[in-house]
Amino acid sequence: MKNLYTWAGILVIVCASVIGDILLAHAMKQVGDVHLLWDRAGLWTVVRRIFGNPNFFLGVAAMAVAFFSLLFALSWGDVSLVAPAAASLTFIGSAFAAKIFLHEKVDRRRWIAAILVAAGVALLAG
Q1: What contacts 120, CB < 8 A, 6 or more positions away?
Q2: C-beta atoms surrounding 3 within 10 Å
Q3: Residues in the chain where the model's pLDDT stays below 70
Q4: CB atoms within 10 A of CB 40
């Protein structure tokens, strides 16, 4: 049962992290180039733009869920499984989500890396 809890925790970490990453990336794309904005309009404009974007707060909330899920998963499983599995599966999930939701071009090299990462997770799980 403890193993089931560990993998459920990893699943929640991965889902929340991917959602958080996508929401934060979307928010920052809406804000624009922070360096140029800072040069043109100043720091307070950058802060106002970021904090005025609801996707930013949703992304931060999702990342907080991922963090607290990590704490639960670490209480159920070994760090040598939880940390690498969560990080690598998040990498794979982020590649898929970036392609689908942000319409980013994910090249062949990244897909090969994702497959290799998935194979590493399979070795960890086995």
Answers
A1: 84, 88
A2: 11
A3: 126
A4: 10
